[in-house]
């Protein structure tokens, strides 16, 4: 059966959210819902069976923990409550997070909270960790779902493991066709990249995954001036047989896996490298001598759109271009990135050439995702 679609523009939205909340409570099949970052695949974080199903449906490694979504600070505090605590006892979120919560919740920020003894969360949520990642999403549908269900919602991105995260309901349907029964359609995701994951329990505090809140924004908060960006072995090129990168274990287990990649090859050009010439483009369209090969080009700030003559030169050599601009602002590039990568696969591109950006502000998260997607990174030649 096809997944049920509901649109945020219709008057049915409220009903659809209530239906999804009911499914979260009673069904073992997770439901997909929009957030401002990417679409999530959600389940009641306290029940084993639906949480286990998330891993099966996505093809996700069991050691990669899930983020728990909450709709209020009260819900967040409940996650800190040990099983045997008296109902009147209050539990406080570690004070280091206060300035971040004040500024960025609801929003694209995930904080690590200590797991209480005998947590009521399903252990599949936190896997091998002693913490749980918690986020209050800003999308009205996601917030309403968390409040209407009154459940902590465990939800990874609603893509097949390894593919770019979904930023439209259609992306979810393509990846998880027949594996989910309900997708709440909230339109395109405004941020377009996943949340920033921060650990304020370690010293110094650390960013485990760059995302929708920038390093600069976090560093401006009291107590976070010395924040470090946790080093990971980024990129797929150095990865092991199954795509797991070598090197020290990353603090956010998800960061070690091959990620965000379309099926086609990705050549990422770092800033200050030259735009590839048509000859260089042609040389990457291997196997194109007898039949037409498709090449992708994704521009950002500097590259010029190819002119008719260049397009024709390539066409004569059996190369067709799928070209697009990701925009110039960091926000726009973030928003468009995953959809543009998915389009390359839809159009059966063999290799996409992508113009990278500087790694400041939104550029840090954009380049983190692109380096993971890239099969080849082109750096500036020493002169
Ligand atoms: O924007 C987002 O964060 C989206 C939306 C749906 O909220 N969710 C998302 O989830 O991106 P997922 O599962 O695709 O990525 C979660 C990341 C992984 O890298 C995971 O390893 C890390 O967060 N993570 C989750 N809980 C953790 C924990 N307790 N300790 C360390 N890392 C954790
Ligand atoms: Mg993901």
TrEMBL record:
The keyword Transferase is assigned to this record: yes
InterPro entries, per database record: DHBP_synth_RibB-like_a/b_dom, Sua5-like_dom, Sua5/YwlC_C, Sua5_C, T(6)A37_SUA5, TC-AMP_synthase_SUA5
A molecular function GO annotation: double-stranded RNA binding
Catalytic activity of the protein: L-threonine + hydrogencarbonate + ATP = L-threonylcarbamoyladenylate + diphosphate + H2O
EC numbers, comma separated: 2.7.7.87
Record organism: Arthrobotrys flagrans (Nematode-trapping fungus)
Protein name: Threonylcarbamoyl-AMP synthase
Keyword Cell wall biogenesis/degradation: no
Taxonomic superkingdom: Eukaryota
GO biological-process terms attached to the record: regulation of translational fidelity; tRNA threonylcarbamoyladenosine modification
Family, as annotated: Belongs to the SUA5 family.
Subcellular location: Cytoplasm
Gene3D superfamilies: DHBP synthase, Threonylcarbamoyl-AMP synthase, C-terminal domain
Chain residues that bind ATP: 60, 64, 157, 165, 209, 260
Record PANTHER family: SUA5, THREONYLCARBAMOYL-AMP SYNTHASE
Sequence positions that bind L-threonine: 37, 69, 131, 135, 155, 195
Sorted UniProt keywords: ATP-binding, Cytoplasm, Nucleotide-binding, Nucleotidyltransferase, Transferase, tRNA processing
Record domain YrdC-like: where: 14-213
């Amino acid at each position: 059966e096809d997944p049920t679609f509901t649109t945020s523009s219709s008057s049915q939205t409220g009903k659809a959210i209530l239906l999804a909340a009911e499914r979260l409570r009673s069904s073992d099949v997770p439901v997909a819902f929009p957030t401002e970052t990417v679409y999530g695949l959600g389940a009641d974080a306290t029940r084993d069976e639906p949480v286990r199903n998330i891993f099966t449906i996505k093809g996700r490694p069991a050691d990669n923990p899930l983020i728990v979504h909450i709709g209020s600070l009260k819900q967040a505090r409940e996650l800190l409550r040990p099983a045997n605590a008296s109902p009147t006892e209050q539990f406080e979120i570690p004070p280091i997070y206060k300035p971040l919560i004040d500024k960025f919740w609801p929003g694209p920020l995930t904080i690590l909270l200590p797991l209480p003894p005998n947590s009521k969360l399903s252990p599949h949520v936190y896997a091998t960790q002693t913490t749980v990642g918690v986020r209050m999403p800003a999308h009205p549908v996601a917030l309403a779902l968390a409040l209407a269900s009154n459940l902590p919602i465990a939800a990874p991105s609603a893509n097949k493991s390894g593919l770019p995260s979904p930023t439209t309901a259609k992306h979810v349907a393509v990846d998880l066709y027949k594996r989910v029964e309900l997708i709440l359609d909230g339109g395109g995701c405004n941020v377009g990249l996943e949340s920033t994951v921060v650990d304020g329990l370690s010293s110094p505090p650390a960013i485990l995954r760059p995302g929708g809140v920038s390093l600069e924004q976090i560093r401006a908060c009291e107590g976070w001036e010395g924040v470090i960006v946790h080093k990971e072995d980024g990129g797929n090129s150095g990865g092991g047989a199954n795509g797991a990168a070598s090197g020290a274990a990353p603090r956010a287990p998800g960061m070690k896996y091959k990620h965000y990649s379309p099926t086609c090859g990705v050549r990422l050009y770092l800033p200050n490298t030259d735009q590839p010439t048509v000859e260089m483009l042609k040389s990457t369209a291997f196997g194109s001598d007898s039949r037409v090969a498709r090449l992708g080009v994704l521009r950002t700030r500097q590259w010029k759109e190819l002119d008719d003559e260049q397009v024709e030169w390539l066409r004569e050599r059996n190369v067709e271009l799928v070209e697009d601009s990701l925009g110039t602002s960091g926000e726009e590039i973030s928003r468009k990135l995953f959809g543009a990568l998915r389009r390359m696969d839809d159009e059966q591109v063999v290799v996409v050439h992508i113009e990278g950006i500087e790694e400041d502000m939104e550029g840090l998260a954009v380049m983190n995702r692109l380096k993971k997607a890239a099969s080849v990174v082109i750096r500036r030649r020493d002169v």
